[in-house]
């Protein structure tokens, strides 16, 4: 395997000295033992993007469930009430702490490419990317992982049968709910695409129009699909009635799924990435997420600076430069660890970070043109995240997605299943950006059965006095949002302050710093521009959900991002 020139000189030494929780070929090892305290909080906290989902989690806890049962309830309910961001036809990544074993686990329920995938299907006649094929309709959809992941979570770590944990989602889909403004806006935004497929129009456009404000909206077909999963587990989705309907619908619309693709799907447990920073232990997502690698690399770079003693401009400068270098490596190396050899010992090594830190100038931006590059676009903002800590100290962070808004906009007839458009997260055309502006190499090229790279970064932060579960949606901005959230938490911010904090983002290319209004004052903005940064204002992004645990008084706090009014962070 050929590595870019900027890292070849360090590779041999780092392969010999690296001590990360992964081998250089990406094979997981056992993660270091958790330092989570033995004391249990005695009450629970849940934060999600929709109050119905948060309440579903508490309903299951009240029936004797633990955090993992509650996670099944929250995720499945979000599938019903927040389909623009996640759902039964998509996938998720989960970072877990199992209190009784003092053990951390990562569940990879990422979608996979169908075996018949053909990169030519995503090209226009002139060889340019065909954005419609990559983002709309059945060709854009990977094999869903959410059902298998939730079944694994329930059976391996939950206390309750699926029939109990899935009951809130089934009831909500069958009896109906009032969609929030974001879902209604998504349906209106994608109306023309939804009209392309009869089952999509039937689900999202009753009487030919989006649901009206305040109208009760029902999804009986999705209720039936969840009932089959509750009754039969994996077999209720990946075999039998539902599987046949999915394949028939995909084929009728020009897709290439097979019954074998569904039967072969497996959710996987992997060792999480662990990094220590300023006395805190951060447990985060391994590949096929790029997020944990990038967050660890950024924190390793930043550990060489005393950010607390810096003015705001220089603090932002060093964080941006660390972001720039991590996203450059994201583009070069990362992919599905079952298919690709990745130099993770190198990327996660503090010695590699030491080398990267050496070429960061104290008062000047490093143009991305000085590093390997290609064109890119504005980062997107979709997906969902929720965080849970239960009374026993179990912790769950799950980031779930159908990729772009309302996924592929294709609903499989007779199932209520809205399919994802995750095939766009592959490097369908090497060195050409996807919808989020992220580049890719052969490491993330499509191949049958392969998982596409993701930015999802559900994370657990454990310290002597305080711990937190944190994550957010946001396409490529997930990585920087979670990073900034971790930094705010370590600086002492409350759950609400972490969720509400203003954000900035740099992803190597385009070489601009996206800024939320108010993140920098006028003097800081002027100083950053003087250093050579281009600041680009952007509408508020991200819907972070955070649960914190203060070990000193044994209290939980839960907060949902104020950018999403229908979200709910709740402690009981």
Task: Describe this structure as you would to a colleague.
This protein is 35% helix and 15% strand. The chain is α+β, with helices and mostly antiparallel strands. The protein has a domain at 45-269 and 381-444. α3 (67-81) packs parallel to α7 (167-175). The N and C termini lie far apart (52 Å).
Layout of helices and strands:
Elements: H1 5-17, E1 45-48, H2 51-62, H3 67-81, E2 91-98, E3 103-109, H4 131-135, H5 146-157, H6 162-165, H7 167-175, H8 181-189, H9 191-194, H10 198-204, H11 220-232, H12 235-238, H13 240-252, H14 259-264, E4 268-270, E5 273-277, E6 280-284, H15 291-302, H16 312-333, H17 344-347, H18 350-358, E7 384-389, E8 395-401, E9 411-412, E10 417-418, E11 459-462, E12 466-471, H19 477-490, H20 495-500, E13 504-505, E14 513-516, H21 522-531, E15 535-538, E16 545-550, E17 555-560, E18 568-571
Helix pairs in contact: 2-3, 3-5, 3-7, 7-11, 15-16, 15-18, 15-19, 16-21
Question: What key phrases describe this protein's structure?
Answer:
572 residues; disordered N terminus; alpha+beta; 6-stranded antiparallel β-sheet; single chain; globular
Mean pLDDT comes to 90
* Main beta-sheet annotation: 7 strands, antiparallel
Distinct helical segment count: 21
Give me the Rg, rounded: 22 Å
How many strands appear in the DSSP assignment? 18
* Poorly predicted tracts of residues: 1-30, 373-381, 435-440
Termini gap: 52 Å
Oligomer: single chain
* Helix amount: 25-40%
Percentage of residues in DSSP E strands: 5-15%
General form: globular
Main sheet strand line-up: 4-3-2-8-7-1-18
Q: Structural class of the secondary elements? A: alpha+beta
């Amino acid at each position: 395997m050929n590595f870019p020139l900027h890292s070849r000189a360090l590779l041999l030494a780092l392969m010999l000295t690296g001590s990360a929780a992964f081998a250089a070929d990406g094979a997981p090892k056992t993660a270091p033992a958790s330092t989570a305290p033995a004391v249990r909080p005695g009450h629970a906290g849940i934060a999600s993007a929709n109050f119905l989902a948060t309440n579903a989690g508490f309903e299951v806890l009240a029936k004797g469930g633990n955090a993992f049962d509650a996670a099944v309830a929250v995720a499945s309910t979000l599938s019903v009430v927040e389909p623009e961001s996640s759902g039964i036809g998509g996938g998720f990544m989960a970072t877990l702490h199992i209190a009784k074993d003092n053990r951390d686990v990562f569940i990879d329920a990422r979608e996979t490419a169908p075996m018949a995938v053909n990169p030519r299907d995503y090209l226009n006649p002139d060889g340019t990317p065909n954005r419609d094929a990559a983002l709309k309709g059945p060709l854009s959809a990977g094999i869903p992982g959410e059902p298998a992941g939730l079944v694994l979570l329930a059976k391996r770590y939950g206390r309750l049968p699926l029939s109990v944990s899935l009951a809130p989602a089934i009831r909500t889909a069958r009896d109906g709910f009032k969609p929030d403004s974001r879902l209604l806006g998504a349906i209106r935004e994608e109306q023309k695409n939804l009209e392309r497929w009869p089952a999509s129009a039937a689900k999202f456009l009753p009487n030919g129009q989006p649901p009206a404000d305040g109208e009760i909206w029902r999804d009986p077909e999705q209720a039936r699909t969840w009932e089959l999963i509750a009754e039969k587990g994996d077999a209720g989705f990946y075999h039998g009635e539902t599987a046949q309907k999915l394949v028939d619908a995909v084929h009728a619309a020009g897709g290439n799924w097979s019954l074998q693709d569904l039967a072969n799907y497996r959710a996987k447990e992997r060792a999480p990435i662990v990094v220590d920073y300023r006395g805190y232990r951060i447990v985060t997502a391994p590949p096929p997420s790029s997020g944990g690698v990038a967050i660890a690399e950024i924190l390793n770079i930043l550990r060489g600076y005393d950010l607390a003693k810096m003015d705001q401009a220089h603090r932002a400068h060093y964080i941006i430069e660390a972001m720039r270098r991590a996203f450059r490596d994201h583009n070069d190396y990362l992919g599905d660890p079952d298919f690709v050899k990745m130099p993770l010992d190198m990327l996660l090594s503090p010695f590699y970070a030491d080398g990267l830190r050496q070429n960061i100038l104290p008062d000047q931006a490093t143009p991305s043109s000085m590093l390997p590059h290609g064109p890119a676009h504005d980062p997107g903002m979709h997906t969902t995240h929720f965080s849970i800590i239960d009374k026993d100290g179990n912790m769950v962070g799950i980031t779930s997605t159908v990729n772009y808004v309302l996924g592929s906009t294709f609903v499989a007839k007779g199932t209520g299943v809205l399919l994802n458009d995750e095939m766009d997260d592959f490097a369908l055309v090497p060195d050409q950006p996807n919808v989020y502006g992220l580049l890719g190499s052969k490491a993330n090229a499509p191949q049958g059965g392969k998982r596409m790279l993701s930015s999802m970064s559900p994370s657990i932060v454990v310290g002597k006095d305080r711990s937190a579960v944190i994550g957010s949606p946001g396409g490529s901005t997930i990585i920087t949002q979670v990073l900034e959230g971790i930094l705010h938490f370590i600086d002492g911010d409350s759950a609400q302050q972490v969720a509400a904090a203003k954000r900035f983002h740099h992803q190597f290319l385009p070489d601009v710093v996206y800024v939320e209004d108010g993140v920098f004052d006028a003097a800081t903005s002027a100083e950053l521009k003087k250093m050579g940064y281009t600041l680009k204002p952007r509408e508020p992004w991200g819907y972070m959900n955070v649960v914190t645990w203060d070990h000193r008084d044994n209290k939980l706090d839960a907060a949902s991002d104020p950018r999403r009014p229908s979200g709910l962070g709740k402690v009981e």
